[in-house]
Amino acid sequence: MEYIIGQRWVSHADAQLGLGVIVEIEQRRVTVNFPAVGEERTYAIDGAPLTRLRFQEGDHIATVSGVELVVTRVDEHQGLLLYTGTDHHDAELTVSELELDAYVQLTTPQQRLLNGHFDKNSDFALRVATFDYLDRQQRSPVRGLMGSRTSLLPHQVYIANEVGQRFAPRVLLADEVGLGKTIEAGMIMHQQLLSGRASRVLVLVPETLLHQWLVEMLRRFNLHFALFDDERLAEIDAGNPFEAEQLLLCSTSLFAGQPERREQVLAAPWDLVVVDEAHHLEWSAEAPSEEYQLVESLAGNSAGLLLLTATPEQVGQASHFARLRLLDPSRFHDLEQFAAEESQYHRWSDMAQQIEAGEIPGDLPEGLDRNAEPAQLIEQILDRHGTGRVLFRNTRAAVSGFPQRLLHRHPLPCPEEYRFSSVDVDSGLHPELPYHDDSWLAFDPRVNWLEQTLKQLRPAKALVICANADTAVALEHHLHLRAGIRSAAFYEGLSIIERDRAAAYFADEVNGAQTLVCSEIGSEGRNFQFAHHLILFDLPLNPDLLEQRIGRLDRIGQQHDVEIHVPYLEGTAQETLLDWYERGLDAFSESCSAGYMIFQRFREALLGHLEQRGEGFEALLSETAEFTVQTRLELREGQDRLLERNSCKPDAANALIDAISERENSDELQEYLEALCEAFGVDTEFHSEHTLILRPSEHMLTGHFPYLRDEGTTVTFDRDKGLAREDLAFLTWEHPMLVEAMDMVHSTELGNAAIGTIKLKGIAPGTMMLECLFTVNCVAPKELQVERFLPLSPTRLLVDARGKDLAHLVPHTRLNELVERVKKPVALAIIKQVQKEVDAKMLLATRQAETRLSDLLSEAEAEMRAQLGAERERLAALQKVNPSIRQEELDHLDYRIEECAIHIRHASLQLQALRLILTT
């Protein structure tokens, strides 16, 4: 080994020293300066733990002056290396190794291997598996749809896929109550964020729904939204507070009478704005509300916009037009023109029905092929439908799977103690509130009734809901401590972890609670369809809240009829409100999306009778019932059946669900996670089938493993178990734990260099082979999604002594079974002897891989132009007959096609892993 002053060497005993330079040579000692850490080390020449740093053609190097080069030639002059390469401007430069940046990181596999830094063979196998799974994720047609903790319902999956893949989606989600608009919005946001189409999202909701949204987004989609309220805003002093977070959740009322906040939120950049309960945004051409004007301004500044409402047209055609106007003001600019267009939608719907019945209408529009298959004709009509691309609406009638609702009234005598406290509506509906202690439990007949009813229902589980947290806590204490009934409380005063524990205790079928006592807000954001008995300890004044309560159990997937029990005090406001809900609104038999609108219409009369029920109450019930029937009829007749067809295409949805299920029903994910944990020093323990307990250990490779709590995390790979047990983390390939852990493998050196020996019959001992893993390196903006057409495409080569590729003869998994560990001193000695051979074989392997890359790039560009070009042609043709196709979408496709082509052509190979194998 010859040392020359000025040469660059690295210490394989301490790679953190960076790149060293020989500064002094004595007879038996050599001194190396490490500029990166400001240290000098002196070593005995015979045993120095040093390795000569020699970059190869294709390597990226950087100089002390900040110039970056791609090496094209390496020469040697008087013992020093000269690197010739090209910079970012394709200018050719030659630099001496003396000019190299001392902060070099030896992350390339070849450099690490030849410098004596290598990993275990199990880490090498983990790295290969990681790139294989990443590649499969990029190619998957259901990318972005797997990561949600939700049931795979066709209408939700279809909408999420249809909208989530659009550039800057601007749509109105208008499914009926109970069909999961919040879930659809979450799935769309998850897909947009995962794909890179969006990175900053603002969600505006009514104040009463803030907690529900926060919990839903976190528990179902692992989306950590920052909740902004007056208190949070007061804590942020400097700058624009709305630029402090990427995902932000706040109420629309936060900006009422606050012009400064309004300016700040409008000044912040948003990729996607989501507005729940959008029908509350009041609009008229002369006097739009302050909330409407805020959303209108946000809609103008944001590329994407999602509006959610269960009642798109219940408050009038003008209100419906106002929502669509927010989505696309250039398309929906005139109310009269919109009304004229809408009158034609029924014609299209009738035409589709005729075609389904086997009749070809005589007035089939130009451009439609009369000889086409009926399904194809209907598909063309759907494409040309006026609001089909901006409005999605599924109905409970069209989506099967809902249970029946059965009401059980339980009249109880009103105690004397309450007769003097019912002086207003609120205390009449909740007479226990004036009591500041739990003394009311002793005389309120509902308490004893509840105790006896729960005992009669055993072992069936029952969800109890009441309006106030204090009431819920007092009831739960009574049931648990005095009545001996297994119970848990669930209310807003608990932390999310405490709520998880309460919900898990209730969900446990064997040793769990029989009942969960919830407050109004505590019941939001959770679904308990494993129970079918619902006890309403009191009634809310808002029909939407009543529907929300029933909706905890009345959901798709409920296996039994929902038994609704309502205890009430006779002769009080409770009985009056129950009568109005049952006989007027018919709220217990079926869902009514117009419930709040009907309540608003009869509000004053109803409140009067709640204070003092009078003779006109029967007339009020009749009038309400008549109006409710008429409203339901109008909603049903006004439903755009063609729109419903376009809101869920069962065949397409089921194909997506099958693809998701196929990935989930494999053991690959669990096996891969266990390998990850072993590599990073995370302890794993069997919990139950498809469920593991992960715990940090004292021997962790890094101080952090994503989403692993200090006390441990229990994870399940089973969707059904994940839905029933929200205390478990439901892992999919898109869960942040997996995404971030795979990124830790991808972006670090772990497993990128290894050495091993094998015994192979017929091959002479000492024969060297190189196992190489190359991937495509395409640097491109994430939102272009180039990986759809040019994924990582892992290329494995197994080069023998003659440079022949044996990868097809010796699969990677088989090689992992045969390879044996080499002790480090022996491995270092081997590496010093075979450096030139490794260089030669790597050159051969790289040339073979580059030949394959050329074909990959050509195929990728052709595939990209075919897919995006076909979509561009389709949208351009549709734009002529369907004005809802925005020009921005076509312009973006043109831009995306050309940008993708440029980045695909500039893609290169990247060596991701290298294993030196010697036969023994």
From TrEMBL:
This is RNA polymerase-associated protein RapA. Keywords: Activator, ATP-binding, DNA-binding, Helicase, Hydrolase, Nucleotide-binding, Transcription, Transcription regulation. Belongs to the SNF2/RAD54 helicase family. RapA subfamily. A motif (DEAH box) lies at residues 276-279. The gene is rapA. Residues 449-621 form the Helicase C-terminal domain. PROSITE patterns: HELICASE_ATP_BIND_1, HELICASE_CTER. It is an enzyme of class 3 (hydrolase). CDD domains: DEXDc_RapA, SF2_C_SNF. Its EC number is 3.6.4.-. One of its GO terms (biological process) is regulation of DNA-templated transcription. ATP binds at residues 175-182. Transcription regulator that activates transcription by stimulating RNA polymerase (RNAP) recycling in case of stress conditions such as supercoiled DNA or high salt concentrations. Probably acts by releasing the RNAP, when it is trapped or immobilized on tightly supercoiled DNA. Does not activate transcription on linear DNA. Probably not involved in DNA repair. InterPro entries: DEXDc_RapA (IPR057342), Helicase_ATP-bd (IPR014001), Helicase_C-like (IPR001650), Helicase_RapA (IPR023949), P-loop_NTPase (IPR027417), RapA_C (IPR022737), SNF2-like_sf (IPR038718), SNF2/RAD54-like_C (IPR049730). Residues 162-330 form the Helicase ATP-binding domain. One of its GO terms (molecular function) is ATP binding. SUPFAM superfamilies: P-loop containing nucleoside triphosphate hydrolases. Interacts with the RNAP. Has a higher affinity for the core RNAP than for the holoenzyme. Its ATPase activity is stimulated by binding to RNAP. The keyword Phosphoprotein does not apply.
